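Predict the assembly for these two chains.
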Amino acid sequence: MADVKKVATRASYGEALAELAAEHDDFVVFDADLAEATHTATFKKAYPERFFDAGIAEGNMMGLAAGVATTGHKAFASTFAMFAAGRAFEQVRNSIGYPHLNVKIGATHAGISVGEDGATHQCNEDIALMRTIPGMTVIVPCDDVEAKAAVRAAYELDGPVYMRFGRLAVPVVNDPETFKFEVGKGIVMREGTDVTIVACGLMVQAALEAAEALAEKGISAEVIDTHTVKPIDADLIVKSAQKTGRVVTCEEHSVIGGLGSAVCDVLAERCPTPVRKIGVQDTFGYSGPAVDLLHEFGLDAEGVAREVEEFVRA
Amino acid sequence: MSDDELKQVANEIRKGVVTATHAAKSGHPGGSLSATDILTYLYFEEMNVDPADPRKADRDRFVLSKGHAAPGLYSTLAERGYFPKSDLETLRHIGSHLQGHPNMNDTPGVDMSTGSLGQGVSAAVGMALAAKHWGNDYRVFCMLGDGEIEEGQVWEAAMFAGNHALDNLVLIVDHNGLQIDGTIEEVNSAMPIADKFRAFKFHVIELADGNDMAQIRSAFEEARGVKGQPTCIVAETVKGKGVSFMENQVGWHGKAPNDEQYEQAMAELSKEA
């Protein structure tokens, strides 16, 4: 995919906000002193009067957004995943989730691909935290096209949404002309018969590349992009598992509580199937260039192909 | 209403607090009773609200950041006509719209779900910001406990409100001096309260007796005229006010009266009427 255009989904977030603002004047955007990094600066530049900086006070930012939402308007609240889902968990749970308010959380810099900043800023727990909140929709887009569509869908949806974006520029694999996004509906990116790979975020690209390599070794892998981790597309996952008989989950997140767990929840109840979970294996990250870290953690095409092959041949 | 009429209303609301917590066999009477007179003034005199249309767009908002004083808020809303007073006896019961802490989606007249301390004030600031941004002229009132202001989030919210000069926002600190583990001085004092809010760019009104209707009236009249900065009313109150054996007793923060105590409390409040 060397020649493919690469965009970080955090950049898509900022652009999508500015595009959305041109059509709707019923929302404002909050950030917590990270506007350049989260790319809400793109929105701020176009609509300075609709942008509010809460400063380094993420808990209060979530409450401000909730207060705005009680008035019948909508609010986007943006910071790094570590602070949105981690530090402000209880504000999100009690001030946004419990009253089911129209706050759309744009969490950037998720996972180990934060890179050099290291473990304190590499959030591998946010999907787990957010999907435990009743009524919270959790979306983990894989590329620019999907991320922009997710922002639009989050705006349209009634209720709280957690959107997970990345720092690293990643290949654009969806065609903006034909792409259709529906909250809660997974996308079969590639059909296969031997194994199902369920992925979200930048692991979708890794899974697609791995599937190419696996095909050369005679393994037919189906790749499903579950951009919505909650509510997860249970029917699609069960249907594919029934066909292939093996499921591998891929996420740039802890294997505890994230996509892998969500898929296991579905399969355990509806279609018991052997599962291999690829992700961060209950450990903290560390500093390094993002691409190198992903390789070390086995979260690139090579790592996915290796795991899948071993799983299928076992 | 005259001050005397408001005092009568407050007395009825106090009976509702005692009745509700007695029926629930749990709940927080002490901090509900310290706040009752201010809640009465807000809902019967100060705020633009309509019980027949609890969500009307241009209404003034009230956020009970010290959400454990829910019996005080519920009794006030019932007295004001948002729902039948008999509902108070269902407080904290399964199926009741009166949850242990306020939920905006359950109870008519509740503008924000609160209970986790420090969070309501942020939402109130967000409401005030929204009013300014979309050009609405409603005002936002928010009551905090003096123990609650130990939460750091309160000061994050205050910083934002002060910096954004939200003069449509009035915070009220129910300064009854007691929190669960003791007096606020014993536990972890946030004193001096007034100076802190001044430092956060608030116009501060020190209300010497927050259980005196005439003084409450003059504080809110002063707040009405404040422009260019938010207001904080620091109200000296008596925890458990109006029920002799509850007054200034830390033990009555989160305890319900038994049958005998209920009879005595209601008898005392009936003498007031």
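Chain B touches chain A through 33 residues (CB under 8 Å). The beta strands of chain B are 61-64, 140-145, 169-175, 178-179, 182-183, 203-207, 231-236.
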